[in-house]
Amino acid sequence: MRICVRDLSGTGSKHDPLSVNYVVIGGFPIVHGRIKLLRIPNWSDSSCQTVVFPPYRFYPNKKVQVQITLNHMNLDDSVTVHHAITSWTERINTQNFTVCAMQSGRNGDNFNPFATVDWMAYQGAPPEGTTGTIKMTKWWSGTNCANVTFPKDKFKDSPVVLVTSNHHRSGKEHDTALIWTEDITENSFKACLRELQNFDGKHQDIYVNWLAFANLHKPLFTEHGSVNFPNTNPPTDEDNNAYCEFVHFTRSYNATPSVQISANHSTTASGNLAPVHNGISTWIENMNESGFRVCVKELYVTRYDPLSVGYAVLKDICDPGWSYFDGFCYFTSDTCANWTTAVKKCRQENSVLADVNNNEENVYIQHRHNGEKSWLGLNDRTTEGDFTWVDHGHGNFTAWTKNQPNNFKEEDCVHALGVEHNYEWNDVHCSECHQFTCRKDLDECQNDLNYCHKLATCTNERGSYTCKCKAGYIGDGFGCYHIYAGLGYSAILANDGGYLRTLSNWLSPVVQSQSSYWKRCWRASVDGWASTTFHSLCDSKGPTVTIIRVGKYIFGGYTGTSWTSSCKYQYTSSAFLFSLVNKPGWGPVKLTQQGNYAYHRKYSIYGCHDCGPAFGGGHDIYIASYASSNKYSYSNLGHTYSPPSGHSYTSSFIQSFLAGSYNFQPDEVEVFYEST
């Protein structure tokens, strides 16, 4: 980070050294809720209601974004499909916002309550996602779209995107507009708005808040997904000319969770309409603890393109009155107390008087007190000058103000000075009266609030958790797979666990996913020895591992790219050869692409219809067609792949290292491909 200062005096004179205090505000403060729109509007009117955030949830000087989704869950009707309603937000700030909704068409048959809205307000972005706001250019009629580009390499696949429009001009009902996304890819998407009533006047000062994610942050979000609507047949009158699908939650809930949705249409799909012709509305009809019924409707054309609806599910993870931040739940008192009383009250809630591990947490806690002084758990009541946290001993982070602590007149307790004092601390008398914040650890290992693999054990830690694969499985805990991951089905290796473990360990760093599984595509003695058979079964399968047996010798190779029949070389940096059983006195060895000819190191594999698997430019390994009935297969090790240490290329030792001789006749060849 670089901080710049500018001389505004215009004198150009030399200045004394100066210091700049700064603080990094981060994290992902978030709060969600549900509100009924009780006012029943006329057909041309909207219904609006103000949502007040719980106290102490947001940084006061940082922008808040809001996502909303409309539903009819409180009408207790699982059959009726209601008229399409569009919704938007107004006047968003750190204390509250206004949510509005308007029904499409001119039907006056409204319902009570008019609608229910699930809302989600947040600052910043979750680690697994990204957020933003885009201003829509003003327009007079029809549809208006804006392009959004994601940060480079943020997503490997197309993410789910949620969008909500925010009107900076309040009470302008002619600005009511449908909202959806177009052409979501891993790099970008379009946000599209269409006026609800045609030729409704100039639309301006409308912004779109968006949230994109591929993997949503647990424990805040419990699940997410996408619902496909093929729309191959026209909608029915029974469904009010909408398409509806019921989505079953993947986990169980004790109460109906909050759900956010957004529709996505693809202009690039064959035969689909451009967004200028669309007017897409989506909402939730009924919902309960097991799932929700989502509906989509096209309001402006009689074409019904296929589309999808992305969704994210949220639930309360902290006790009522507590809020989540970075692995902990927090509660802030409304009244002041002395330090010992604050400690006692926090312990009564199975929590601790706030201790601080880093500057981000320091800023967050002090913002919860709106700039006022507040107690921390730090004190030196036991040993003068030895400051410890009341329930967790010594810590590594402090933020003392200048010349503090000074123990003036037996000051043994510590309070935070607040936002206007650079978030610093001071020691004071424990009898003073200040507000306080309690903190308790969230056990992510309970109720599926973690990303541990189903074959891993979750262990809760203070502010976090760890995952460890269970016995018999390997991986990082977030992805676990059987220690042999399918290679145990190898006819060549099945009887030797040591060789299976060795090969699995060599493959572990190059697999596409820690949950990958190796599936056999070719076993020559069963499927046939013809090279064309190998290619018909194994071409275009992605990464593969080839295992060869010649008498007692066992060897092979891995490639990270697909086999082809085009008689061309291919390069992949992850490719390697291996030998499990070889010359007397040698053990298993892995051979990387560091052979004798540097210019041939790009020749990782050679794929051609008239031969089986071939590795290297020499070739280092070459399996002939019908290899079991001839000796055209050979090993010219050291050409592309490194020869064993201490031996040179073309030596008789190297040429016979893998198979016992230069030319060989294999007893078995197997090829496994990686399935993710």
TrEMBL record:
PANTHER family: MANNOSE, PHOSPHOLIPASE, LECTIN RECEPTOR RELATED
Single annotated GO MF: calcium ion binding
InterPro entries given in the database record: C-type_lectin-like, C-type_lectin-like/link_sf, C-type_lectin/snaclec_domain, C-type_lectin_CS, CTDL_fold, EGF, EGF-like_Ca-bd_dom, EGF-type_Asp/Asn_hydroxyl_site
Protein name: C-type lectin domain-containing protein
DNA repair found in the keyword field: no
TLDc domain ranges (all copies): 491-675
Sequence ranges assigned to domain C-type lectin in this UniProt record: 325-439
Keywords: Disulfide bond, EGF-like domain, Repeat, Signal
Keyword flag Repeat: yes
Source organism of this protein record: Pocillopora damicornis (Cauliflower coral)
SMART domains, per the entry: CLECT (SM00034), EGF (SM00181), EGF_CA (SM00179), TLDc (SM00584)
SUPFAM superfamilies recorded: C-type lectin-like, EGF/Laminin
Span of domain EGF-like: 441-479
PROSITE patterns referenced in this protein's UniProt entry, alphabetically: ASX_HYDROXYL (PS00010), C_TYPE_LECTIN_1 (PS00615), C_TYPE_LECTIN_2 (PS50041), EGF_3 (PS50026), EGF_CA (PS01187), TLDC (PS51886)
